[in-house]
């Protein structure tokens, strides 16, 4: 629980994660020792180093898997947030574009209504006759 809260709050320092792993390994060894005392004297003896080493290695792999799963979940959440932000921005741009196009159409209508009807421009008559070649 401590490691999970550390990771969820953004912690990623390898030294602290290593300490948390070490603490969890110690807690597991103590729990197994306490459970063994309850089952009987023979179970309370220290586990063989081979079994203990395998248990510790298995626990370390499980912890690393959990850490990687947490990291993967955090990456998925970030990706979804970015995708949502991108789609929201695209939707906002589309709405702004539609609004601007509507405004341009209204301005064109207004301009056509307010200006007098202009005939297409005609070329003015030349003032002087062209010079002969």
Automatic annotation (TrEMBL):
Keywords: Coiled coil. This is CCD17 protein. InterPro entries: CCDC17. The keyword Amino-acid biosynthesis does not apply. Residues 58-110 form a coiled coil. The keyword Coiled coil applies.
């Amino acid at each position: 629980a401590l490691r999970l809260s550390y990771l969820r709050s953004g912690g990623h320092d390898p030294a602290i994660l290593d300490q948390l792993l070490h603490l969890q390994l110690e807690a597991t060894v103590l729990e197994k020792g306490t459970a063994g005392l309850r089952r009987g004297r023979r179970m309370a003896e220290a586990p063989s180093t081979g079994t203990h080493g395998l248990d510790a290695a298995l626990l370390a792999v499980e912890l690393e898997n959990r850490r990687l799963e947490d990291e993967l979940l955090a990456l998925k959440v970030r990706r979804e947030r970015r995708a949502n932000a991108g789609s929201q921005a695209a939707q906002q741009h589309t709405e702004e574009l539609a609004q601007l196009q509507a405004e341009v159409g209204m301005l064109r209508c207004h301009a056509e209504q307010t200006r007098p009807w202009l005939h297409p421009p005609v070329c003015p008559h030349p003032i002087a006759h062209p010079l002969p070649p």
